[in-house]
Design goal:
CATH class of the largest domain in chain B: Alpha Beta
Largest sheet of chain A: 5 strands, parallel
CATH topology of the largest domain in chain B: Heat Shock Protein 90
Largest sheet of chain B: 5 strands, antiparallel
Helix content of chain A: 40-55%
Order of helices and strands of chain A: EHEHEHEHEH
Number of strands of chain B: 17
Number of strands of chain A: 5
CATH superfamily of chain A: Response regulator
Number of helices of chain A: 5
Oligomer: heterodimer
Helix content of chain B: 40-55%
Number of helices of chain B: 13
Largest interface: A-B, 21 and 23 residues
Number of domains of chain B: 4
Structural class of chain A: alpha/beta
Structural class of chain B: alpha+beta
Radius of gyration of chain A: 14 Å
């Protein structure tokens, strides 16, 4: 069972992406957080518990309360203490070159994916785990 | 009368001759008397004073012949068996002409006669030099007229900062201009009843130039009699003599008011461009996030609807399309509206009562206000009215109040305080709530940005505050916020130039 975190405030997108993921594999458990604050609070609670930590994080950038960049700043500090390593993908509707460039300078970001997250891409990610 | 094909130092000789400005001048008694004396001394019937120009011999004074000039290589001397020429010498060794005597009969001159002729030739040189100051005066006049007519301020100071010269551009009044010569700025300032600080500043600048030996420049603004600001670019240059001693300072001023106005215009345009550029980036972001996001959802939904296995699922998916389309429509309309604000530069101003305009916004939000049971306190006594575009003020009230309702605290009844105050010709409107507030330490830079939301609220699109800011700034005003999480926010809006008498 692979664990996937979906951090995104857009309900429809979350609903559709969950559907996409489950179509590719039923062997995936998706947890949803509607902004960066909720996700980071949760990670701070479970960072030492291997079985609860995710394998993949899909992170949106434009979110209320704590956006993707603010989440990444805290995540970078927290990540070294994680009991298990994971992959993190930015999944954003942004097509701004500035934001892509900015993400390239963050080691913890595996790739910048422009929405939508399609089946083929998710399959590829799953196979590379 | 004499023919000299070449004289030594031809170039120097010609230069020395031209400086005297004697060629082609009229007859003068002083020179005529000398040729008469030469004839009397030598008993020769012919005598002349001639100057040797580049290609001619020119006759300044003559007796017994009628010549004005002859070519340099055409010898007149051959016509006379008796001929003696004494050189006229300037600058120790430059021969510029001759005093000569001639006659039809050969005569032998005695020593006294020779000496007399030589003395007369020297007298010609003396006479030429006596006439020089007259020439120099005309040169002085020439340069002075340039300095006096040049459209720039020029003053000259001696080594002790006393005025040696001021041109009429620097000091227009002739009386003042004459007074200042030999005085310093302190004396002149006292004479004109001016603040001695001006003289002190000038003295400091003068000393800087004197002590460093380097030119300085600065810009200076002052009011003309009509009250317009005039800007001068001023410079001071040190002057040194041949041995490097400091002797004087030249002060120089040029009116750069027009350039200054142009510069200010340019920097204003630059500022506007920078703002517009930021707005363009904001637009790019909002297109990415707020338009592209719903579009992707619609595309994905369409895909799933196609692949749906049963009618039930299809129905569910279709029902999810509607809110996406609604959100897209809302964002699109607000975007269009905010673009129009920018196009609306010359929008009409009206005298608006705050209370009337507020009531319109409250009417529009009637249902929401009833639901929130909001308490609203109003104090517009200090500044009851404002000159502003009606639709902007209505939109400002609407956005701020609907925001306050949207982000009210679930733990307490919403209370709103609205007030207007006069402040140095501007009006400041404040809208205070007791709602959720915003963490300004974290969100300081983002608060008025497009598409920025700070709360988990289904209606939060983040366009309201951006719109309000755009409307306020389009009219030259300012908007700012003070806020603490869970205590509430105070939004303040400054309406500029409200200093008129209605």
């Amino acid at each position: 069972m692979k664990k996937v975190y979906l951090i995104d405030d857009d309900d429809i997108f979350v609903f559709l992406t969950k559907k996409t993921i489950l179509k590719v594999s039923e062997n995936v458990d998706v947890e949803v957080f509607s902004d960066g604050q909720q996700a980071i609070t949760h990670l701070k609670e479970i960072f030492s518990k291997k079985e609860l930590l995710p394998d993949v994080i899909f992170l949106d950038l434009n979110m209320p309360v704590m956006d993707g960049w603010e989440f990444l700043a805290e995540y970078q500090e927290l990540y070294p203490s994680f009991a298990k390593k994971n992959e993190l993908y930015i999944v954003s509707s942004s097509i701004s070159p500035h934001e892509m460039e900015r993400s390239r300078n963050i080691n913890e970001v595996s790739e910048f994916i422009i929405k939508p997250l399609v089946k083929e891409k998710f399959l590829e990610i799953l196979e590379n785990l | 009368m004499i023919n000299i094909p070449s004289l030594r130092n031809e170039a120097d000789r010609i230069a020395a001759l031209y400086v005297l400005e004697i060629l082609d001048t009229g007859e003068e008694q002083e020179f005529d008397n000398i040729v008469k004396l030469a004839s009397i001394i030598t008993h020769a019937p012919v005598s002349a004073i001639t100057f040797v120009d580049k290609h001619r011999i020119w006759y300044k004074a003559k007796l017994g012949i009628e010549l004005i000039e002859t070519p340099r290589d055409n010898s007149v001397t051959d016509a006379f068996p008796f001929f003696i020429a004494i050189p006229i010498v300037v600058n120790k060794n430059l021969v510029i002409g001759h005093l000569s005597v001639a006659g039809p009969v050969q005569v032998v001159l005695n020593q006294e006669q020779h000496k007399g002729l030589a003395l007369l030739a020297q007298q010609v040189t003396t006479l030429l030099q006596l006439k020089l100051p007259v020439i120099n005066n005309s040169i002085k006049e020439f340069y002075e007229s340039i300095l006096n007519n040049i459209p720039q301020d020029i003053v000259v100071f001696d080594a002790d900062h006393r005025y040696l010269f001021a041109n009429p551009m620097a000091i227009k009044n002739e009386e003042y201009r004459k007074f200042i010569i030999g005085k310093d700025d302190f004396e002149y300032g006292a004479f004109r009843n001016r603040d001695p600080k001006i003289a002190e500043a000038r003295r400091a600048q003068f000393l800087e130039v004197k002590n460093t030996g380097k030119a300085i420049g600065w810009e200076e603004s002052q009011k003309d009699p009509e009250g317009n600001t005039i800007t001068f670019l001023r410079r001071m240059f040190p002057m040194h003599d041949e041995s490097g001693n400091f002797i004087m300072v030249i002060g120089f001023g040029i009116d750069i008011t027009e350039r200054k106005i142009l510069e200010e215009k340019q920097s204003m345009i630059m500022e506007q461009l920078a703002i517009q550029n930021t707005q363009l980036i904001d637009f790019c972001n909002v297109v990415s996030h707020n338009l592209r996001g719903p579009l992707i959802n619609m595309a994905m939904l369409a895909e799933f609807i196609k692949e749906a296995e049963d009618a039930e699922e299809q129905k569910l998916l279709v029902s999810k399309l509607e809110p996406v389309i609604e959100s897209l429509k809302g964002t699109f309309n607000e975007l269009v509206e905010s673009i129009q604000i920018r196009l609306d530069r010359d929008i009409k101003l009206d005298k608006l009562n705050f209370s009337t305009c507020l009531q319109e916004a409250l009417d529009g939000l009637y249902v929401e206000i009833q639901k929130a049971k909001a308490k609203i306190k109003v104090d517009f006594d200090d500044a009851p009215a404002v000159m502003y575009p009606h639709k902007y003020l209505a939109s400002i009230f609407y956005n701020l109040i609907s925001n306050a309702i949207k982000y009210q605290s679930p733990e307490r009844q919403l209370s709103l305080n609205l007030a207007s105050k006069m402040k140095e010709g501007n009006i400041v409107l404040t809208v205070q709530d007791n709602g959720l507030g915003i963490d300004l330490i974290k969100h300081k830079d983002n608060i008025f940005k497009i598409g920025k939301v700070f709360h988990r609220h289904p209606d939060a699109k983040g366009l309201g505050l951006f719109m309000t800011k755009t409307q306020v700034e389009a009219m030259g005003g300012k908007i700012w916020v003070e806020s603490f999480p869970d205590q509430g926010s105070i939004f303040s809006i400054e309406f500029v130039n409200q200093n008129m008498n209605w």
